[in-house]
Amino acid sequence: MKCVYCCILLLMGIIVNCPDTSAQQDSVPVHETFRIESKNVKETRTINVWTPPGYSAAIDSFAVLYMADGGIAEDFPHIAQTVSKLVAANKIPPVILVGIENTQRRRDLTGPTEIKKDKEIAPVVGGAAVFRSFIKEELFPEISKRYRIKNERSIMGESLAGLFVVETFLQSPEMFDRYIAMDPSLWWNDRYLVKNAAGYISKLPAGKRFWFAGSQDVSNDTRQLSAALEAARLPGLQWHYSDEPLEQHATIYKATKEKALVWAFNKQ
User: Fold this and answer.
1) Does residue 12 lie within any of the structural domains?
2) Which domain holds residue 205?
3) Is residue 11 part of a domain?
């Protein structure tokens, strides 16, 4: 039993320590970078923005896709490359991609927890609500001021960023129109979101779209979330669960990002 417990802790460590380090091997697309002196998180935050081809010469406004783990040494390069490819192929409409670079990832992307082992992953955890307030009260207005945007927002993330996406979808669904989560760390706080999913789902507003995926490493939790959504049968909610038993936590982001974006940004 001791060996089994150690293996579980090792897996949790792997999941917590994402984002995928292979993102550092991707070429960095042409983009803009600016910084916000945040009153909410009380620090300087770096924001990377990719705009679709021809943006500067156009007069159109665009939907915005936000992503956590959005630093140049994180997942921003490969997601920007993928969005660019899908836009060029007319598989998704042109969008603006906004990457939020991490400072204290485990603080910002986790909600409250009562579990001792959870609290040991970083000096500070449980800051997701404050991070959401930064996005809503400071980042949204700054993006609106700097870019031509529609009132149409999406968010995507993997691992702890996926946990943040799911938590936001369930607890603050008004913030975004589309939610994409790969391998969300739903084990957090003794699987609180999974255990309480039915109550949150019953209060979701109409018109939201939710795509999520689970690899062999986290599929028990993601399948249970899928079951809760299926049981609710909300007519105003569009959702899709992609069960990925052949993928691992380290591979699922790159393996599923294209189909996730295509599903999320096209009418079903």
Assistant:
1) no
2) 20-265
3) no
**CATH code where residue 50 lies:** 3.40.50.1820
Q: Check the CA dihedral 161-163-166-169 and report its sign.
A: negative
Count of domains observed in the chain: 1
> What SS3 state is found at 117?
helix
Cα–chain center distance at 19 = 11
Residues 6+ apart with CB under 8 A from 87: 52, 53, 93, 94, 95
pLDDT at 239 over 70: yes
* 1 inside domain: no
User: pLDDT for 46-77, tens place per residue?
Assistant: 999 999 998 988 899 999 999 999 999 999 99
pLDDT tens digit sequence for 162-197: 999 999 999 999 999 999 999 999 999 999 999 999
Spatial strand order of the sheet with 62-67 comes to 32-38, 43-50, 95-100, 62-67, 149-158, 178-182, 209-215, 238-244
Residue 4 lies in a domain: no
pTM of the entire structure? 0.91
Asked if residue 26 lies in contact with residue 78, where contact means CB atoms within 8 angstroms, the answer is yes
Residue (of 257, 125, 244, 107) closest to 181 by Cα position: 257
